[in-house]
Protein 1
Amino acid sequence: MVVRDSPMNASTPSALSFTETLSLLSLFLASFGIIANTFRGDGEPLIASLALSGIAFAATYAMIRWLGPTFMKAGLKGKDMSKVHKREIPETMGAVCAVVYLLIIIVFIPFPFYKDIVAATSGGGNRDVVIELEHVQTGRFLHRFPHSKLASYLSAILSLQSVSILGIGDDLFDIRWRHKFFIPGIASIPILIVYFVDFGVTQIVIPIPLRPYLGGLFDLGFLYYVYMAAVAIFCPNSINILAGINGIEVSQSLVIAFLLVLNDCFYLLAPYPHPATDSHLFSLYMLLPFIGVSLALWWHNWYPSRVFVGDTYCYFAGMVFAVVGILGHFSKTLLLLFIPQIFNFIYSAPQLFRLIYCPRHRLPRFNARTGLMEPSVTEWQYPPKPIVAVFLKLLHRLHLLRVTTNHGGQITESTNFTILNLWLVWFGPRREDRLAMELLVMQTFCGLFGLFVRHNFALWIFESDNWSVKSS
């Protein structure tokens, strides 16, 4: 079926309008000029990262338009079930984001090490200094190069490549959830090895009230790596679970990314050199290009969606957050920004772990008559087991679920266990875009509250907060 009003049905690059082409070309040229100008100074990696993010946005935006028809011809397409006219649109566009992002990150690698590369010159990094020949050191300066920092970048790229392959495989072959759930943990092995070699801290600070019993520090040992692997498993899967309406996957990822950038700025804008500066610079270097590619995808995926992101984007986005949280050494702060995702995972657990029947799709149901989204339901052809029925009715009384019973009091329907359906149970039917916006506002407030608690209440249970620790 051909839908003439959608630019995705154009089979040539002319799908980009003249205004879009001019805007993207201007952004690309301006970004390229900024990158070229950074080499006149010390490399200025943060500015270069911003400029590369602009290139990432322009490239992703254009490629989504150009590759849309190609993806549809290859069978990578799907129907938007939440519309009256269920037209087919391209799917798996998250793969475009992942590929562009990885290429940009690879191109960016020389910039953080520009000073270290220049330092191996005869002037010790200063081109204006002339040193007598007998005082010039010769040979390669490998002992001075920050190999640990380079290893962090390379391990991050390797983990992101691995999880992107998982996402593409899932989109192509529809891998079962129980088979793919732990794969991000395997993809996290490179960053865990770098953490072990470069940092290796497995001790946690004990809250003041518990110190009489556990002491000031408690060494988790191997369990700390299990915890970090669990973070790497949780982040991609949690974004993949909180999905089902136009724009929600990309939008929640953008909110988390912007909140992480805000957290990084707290440390970089401190009035004194902070010991965590390098870690948060690494976080910014990874997040800024991610925001660039995600904004381009968001433009096409927001309601009414012209493309689907696919599972590739969910796994790729979640692993970006896991990488910056683990290698940036703020994984606990990261989890404070995942409060809605943590709640959604816990709330969905009865269905995810098959304690209660779980249908193939749990996205909210579209009512074609009203044009509104309503909670999707699980129909019980046979009465649930007594213990399950008690559990469902208890949640119904707590307004955490909606159940329908017959005249005999037996449950015939129950809403599915997702935060999207729960929101509709609480506040009633919503338009798809309004539902997404309300959840994003909630995500933003939860994230800001998490950062507020992290940086203002930490001293209530700990002796010091690393935001207030000055470098020696």
Note: Residues 45-73 form the longest helix (29 residues).
Protein 2
Amino acid sequence: MLPSQPLLHAAAFALTVLQALASDTFIAAVYEHAVILPDATDEPVSPDDALALMNKNMDVLEGAIKEAAQQGAHIIVTPEDGIYGWRFTRETIYPYLEDIPDPVVNWIPCTDPARFGPAPVQERLSCMARNNSIYVAANIGDKKPCNSSDPSCPSDGRYQYNTDVVFDPEGKLVARYHKYNLFRRETQFNYPKKPETVTFETPFGKFGIFTCFDILFREPAVVLVSALQVDSVLFPTAWMNVLPFLTAVEFHSAWAMGMGVNLLSANTHNVRLAMTGSGLFTPEGPAAYHYDSATEEGCLLLAELSARPRLSPTYPPVVNWSSFATSIKKFPGQKDAFSGAVRRDIFTFSELRNKAGNYTVCQGDLCCHLVYRMTNKSKDEVYVLGAFDGLHGSLIKYHWQICTLLKCKSTDLNTCGQPVETAQTKFEMFSLSGTFGTNYVFPEVLYSGVQLAPGEFEVLRDGRLKSKHGTLKPLITATLFGRLYEKDLPHPLRTSHNITP
């Protein structure tokens, strides 16, 4: 007699658990998805048309999930906005939303789809996880009705949230997270009243989850790692690359290193909007990453990661980020300093005039020190040491401290800080440090062509970002990106009277 379908699922799930338990590692996957976008419209489409569009995207995601599972992946992350895109007003996104319950309800949508009303998207995602015996993380929209008894209730009688969901290998909903730090254009969604710190346990470690812009703030990102001690973070994102410090692969890899956790980052893929760059990032550097600004193709990445990186013998030591920089005398360079803009942020720069040297540049409470030696100094290229200590952002203002070795766009010093993607100059060595007023510093090294430098640099216990040997490729930037969360200004949009549409 053939075994029943439920028994087969139970056996597959048990096998997945046993495989994960048998090892201190797991296979992680992320899928960078070229989202099929809806037509622009001022009027809401019908629920059937909305579901048809979402099914087109889920067809693609399902193919990636099946392929990942066949290659042994235990968990896969798909991008923010990956199921319906981002071209919406509050009204036009409504047909795409579902009511997503709290995971405490112990629900498998694949086997009980009507329990909480129509939920075809949750049902399909649940079945993808169940049928492939894999954890699936996806980003969809949640709707929650409210009424006049809630003084913050929007005038249309509902909250709408940018929401991550996770289904386990049985298809059970195990996590739901409402994005706390909405990007400024996300007017179709409401801000949650409080930040949610969402975690779930797996046989291969403790996981947390948050979304895109969240990574730049204390809550919930830092809280998940520092207070709740997650081992790995799932990170659906729709990240627009911003040089020189905030390309997706550059900053997300640096965040994983600075925080000492695995970060499973799945970006949307849209070249016109500079959206590309996904990866499986670890405390030691990228295990796998993808950056493609030339094609419109999606990409599946897999890598074997440490299940509990803090227990790994290669786990990086605790860094005192200001130790070295506060122990030395200032190098020369400050007298030749000039101001330059990185977008709207005014940096203090000093030109690296020679093939080798020692420089110091200061701004505010931050002094940045650099020792360097170039392999070749091109007459057509100018590099600077830069410092920034201040509030970033035009609307949402948050405090950065940055020390950077940076290539200028041209030999005109007025171009220093403008976006640059290519370079010709290699360095025999560099050592960058700063008098940071924070423990939250993220080390970035970006090569020509927006490529990372895995294994080619290290962070010493005394806070120096140091090349291990000569750079294998020309350098765009080496940066220490610090965040002083306690100096952030109050959020101008996260107030009760601004929650309403």
Note: The two ends are 59 Å apart (CA to CA).
